[in-house]
Design goal:
single chain; 1364 residues; 9-stranded antiparallel β-sheet; 43% helix; disordered N terminus
Amino acid sequence: MLLFLTVSARTWHPVNQFDLQGNQCPALVRLNQPCPLVCASSIAQCPQQVRPAECPNGQFYCPDGTCKSGVSLQSACAGAKPVCSCNHGFVYGFGDNLVPCLGGQLANVTSLSQNVHTGDAPLVAQCAQDVGLNINQMTNPLMLQCKPGSSKILSGTEPEFVLFYTVLSIQFFILMGFYFYKAHKNTVGEVKTTSMFAQGLMEMENVVAGSKKQSDLTFVGYSPNFLGTFVKFSVYATSLMWIALFIVLVGDYYEAFSSISYRDQALLFVDHNNLSRVFVALWHLSLFWFIGLLLCAEYLKTAFLVKTPLTQHPLFVLVKKNVKPPIRYQGLGPIVEWIHAVERPFRKWTKSDVQRTIVPVKWTDNGSLFIEFECVRYVFDPASCTFEPFDFELGKTSTALLANGGGLDQYEATRRINLNGPNQILFEIDSFVSGLFKEFTGVFYLYQFMMLIIWWYYAYYYMAIVLTAVVIGSGVIKVVVSHEAQQRVVQMATYNHPVTVLRDGQWETLDSTKLVPGDVIQIKPSNEFTVSVDVVLLSGDAVVDESSLTGEALPVAKSSIKSDGAPFSVEAHGKRNCIFAGCHVLETQPEKTGVPVTALVLATGAGTQRGRLVRDILFPAEIVFVFIEQLKLVVPILLVWGIIMLFASMSLLEIGDIDSWFYGMFTISQILSPLLPAVLVIGQSISAQRLAGKGIMCVDFSRITLAAKVSVMCFDKTGTMTKEGLDFVGSQEVNQQTNGFQAVRKDFDTFSTAMKLAMLSCHSLSLAAGQIVGNFVDVEMFKATGAALDAVTPSRIYPLSFSGVNTLQIIRRFEFVHAHAYMSVVVQDQGTGKLYVFLKGSFEKIKSLVQSTPEDYVTTAENQARRGCYVVAFAFKELDVSLQEAQDLPRSELESGCAVLGLNLFRNELKPDTRDVLEKLRAGAVRPVMITGDHALTAIFIAQECGLVGPDAQVCLVDYVDNKIVCADYQSKDTMELSELENMLYHSYTPTQPIELVVTGAAFRHLHGRGWIQAHLQDIRIYARMSPDDKVNCVRSQMAQNITGMCGDGGNDAGALKQAHVGVAISEAESSVVAHFSSSNRSLECCVDLLREARCSLDVGFASYKYLLIYGETLAFSGLAEYYFNVNMSQMTWVLIDGSTVPVSWALTLARPSKALTSTRPTARLLGPETFFSVAGPVLINILFTIITLLALFGQSFYSCHQFDGANADLRRWWELADNYEGAVLSILVMYQILHSAAAFNIGSKYRRGGFSNLAFVISYGLVFTIISLVLLLDPNIMSCSFRINCGTPAALRSLGYSVPYNAPLTFFNASGHNVIPMSFRIVLFLISLGNLLSLMLWEYLVILGPVRQWVINRWSKKIPLRL
């Protein structure tokens, strides 16, 4: 239909036949046209009117038109360049060896100009008549007319073409020959070799025992050979050949090789038609070549290598790793699902569904083969014929770990460093050159460069220079930024310092890179270096700063493991007994004076906790975002649309000339702008800068866009929603005689002796620089006693003298671990010598450890939790054994028979802004959820206090007790079955009185596997008593249905922070390695700031994206109108349009976020209805105003007989096609339309402030608007003549009564010699442009953002709202 309309439309527009009144148009007169030069054999032969004066005596008149001295004509005029000559390929038609007569004659011509290359017969005839020459008998003198020589269409059999065919054929046969050669080589059977293991050079059983099989990795050996290397370089040479050929063709277009032309022509390929045909053919062939290379990128990694069995010691190994499915969530939509369905077989065909990495094979000092992949060393195992990573079994119990206290001998240490690698996180930083190669070999860069080659070739080098600089500059900047980021990771991962290690029974100082698992090292306090390995303390205690790893601001006390035979795991004992890589040791406490604090190395390099974090940064998990997924379909759609417009353009031009192809390709480059991929990234980087100004650091810019769609935000409670510390409320003891609870007391002096002893001793505190450090509950409890720790032996406690308690000595301590949920100590009263056992933990756990509890034990504890208290229970007993027996008895026997002592109560106060932040999030359509390790009742109290749970909400608690699910109403305490709760949820939910569920960690673990949790995510408001693993699984469940954020302090929620779509660590420490975002401001307001900036970033990214689409569509449709008239826009017009696109689109992204979150989120769907109508509406409006403008132009008397006749126009000289009214009017309109479209998108929205608040855009818009308006509204001036709008030749401008600007062109390619628009119609054009602007603004404001949008949503939206 489009092609039919564009082709048939030309019939209604005859050129210059009749005026508006129907009268015959008079012949057009071209005034003061410069005449061709008159040439003659001598001055005497020149006509009288143009005869030069005779030269003085001794001088001769030379072919360059000057008099020169000499003894003869030949000597005087030697080296003079004749002006009566033509370039290569052009002839006079008459005579030779001519001299010029006087020039500068002007003539008025009444016939239209002919083709510029075939001369202008009417002009020649008129000029000949004016100087008295007979046009039919011009031989000597004659008028210089350079006409094309004997041009011909090249047949393609010329020598240079034959050479080209030969090179391509040789390359083809080289590739095919090597393909069959490889196919033959790859079928050769594997040759079995005798390995070093078989020869007995290494104890294989020791190696295999420590290995870990990697089932998701496949290893294939490859080696280079001479033939493969030759083929590789031939491919490189062919690729460079295409580039070199393009350079030659572009240079030939501008006649750069005219001096070496071997065909007596200005061009190597005779003329521009031949040259353009060669260029187009070469363009398509090279495009096919480079697309083939990109599609085969995965194959090319091994294409030039020969497969080699692993047992034959290949030089390279191809590591195949199954690509994990990206993180997905519901609501991606059918379009994305369809894209994934189409993408899967394509990825399988191109092998991009498997990560293929080629790595070099290296040798250890003892002759083992190994490779390094993703920072991990893999050693070749001949028994299994594969590469495997190795670790070493150090023991599964604490007793077994202590057995390694003797350290390693040098032989074993060397063996382990060969198998495990040095203690380094090894990865290669891309060199600047390799970084550039990776950056510029992407698909869209290929598209950009192929389009820019056309611009360079087709006389549009002005903007080609600009956009080439923009594309290359932005790519270089990305490479530099990436290189700097890699260097930061290297700095974060590199540790190199001396360490004291036990080798061969002797302490020696080694470099930390030589440590291996199983080494025993000394732990020393130092702020100068960071611990480089994961260790478990074997003896002594230490105080460690873990802030750079977890984000916890408070130092953490670490103690040595005990020889109790208990199972050991890093997950269970890491908090108390392990020091992880990346931490700083602040202070150590040896068990005995003069004995060092020692630790056993558990992991080194990439195997450490820090190493895993670094690997997460270097190799992040892929995420699915609807914007990125739909972009995969948008680009092909725009490309197909561009091809349709290409054929429409070629049809309108009504010629078969090759030049019409270039016009169509310009149309494609406008529709599919090379800047499209960059617009979203620009908005992200600007938002990241603003967030950094607020103390919020971002390590992954793509997460900013993802944060714009967050609909569920999970919060840790303690230290996040509440203040970091706890306030001691008091103690509620059990009367040991009546077995009932007493009243709460806060004064330590009023406590019983047993409670005093418990509070003084049952903790894991130590001293660092004179400051008590440890768990903040323990710290607050101990502060309430007023006692002091021994500076040398922190296990000795000195109570206040008036407390009535003697000095205490902690004999044994069993640390608190999450798996046990309690701790215990054995204490000796130094005054009486009595021994006591004290237990401390959650009241549920203590209940399970004692034989009996007061009847109101649970009720009392729960009531205190309901009041918002953090409840810690104590139990105790007095030991009737000797000190030695107390040190030897197993823990279970020590703790048996304890009695409940009482409860310690702490209160965690809310942060002052928590309630306000939650209200803002709800107003922003974000559902807040609490995930805490605290007791459910305490969590409910905090939730009610901060407004997370409304005052009218019905709260139901879901727990798992005695192997069954127990549901209870929080207010009435009535219990119910799970089925009853589900029925109540189904029938009784109302927005004004919702039912809020509270699920404990035990219930979560039981119900999660049954799918119940996933089905009731919108009903569950609080997750209590959640372990770190529970938090991770909870966040994963939320992510399956919604874009999920997680906010915590980076402590035991670090896993959840990393897992979430958007993780926000609130910590003053360097916790950026834990989460995607980290805030030095510990206020929850950072979440609101992040979401505001993220929504703004996504919205402005879409605004720029839509602006570029309208830019392309406006140019494409206006191009159809231009091609209908065979006109174009001037070079300066194109420079302004394309040159202003970059700063205007950049200025759009500088819009600041709205002051508050709103109840909707910006769209992320490129193919959604909002985006479609936001683009389609302005395009149709612009088309409508284009039609109105052209109709207004047709109705003007100044235009009716002065239309441009492009029948004989030279399309290659497209810049000359602007010298007419049609080109001028369309240029003005298009410049306004593109600029006004940007103004419409700058209106602002719910997510960003627009209008005049975006000062950068206002300045950019105002500057471009002023330039366009000056060109339109002012009389001919320097600026308008630069644009060749409202301008003309000096003679034409003088005849119209205008002053002549200095840059007025001497030649104007229009019959009238000018395109000056009368002032009345200039005002009409200006008013039309303002009407166009108003229409665009109203469409965006009323339809896309305003009441029409809301009406459509209310009428047709079927989306189920999220419970906030």
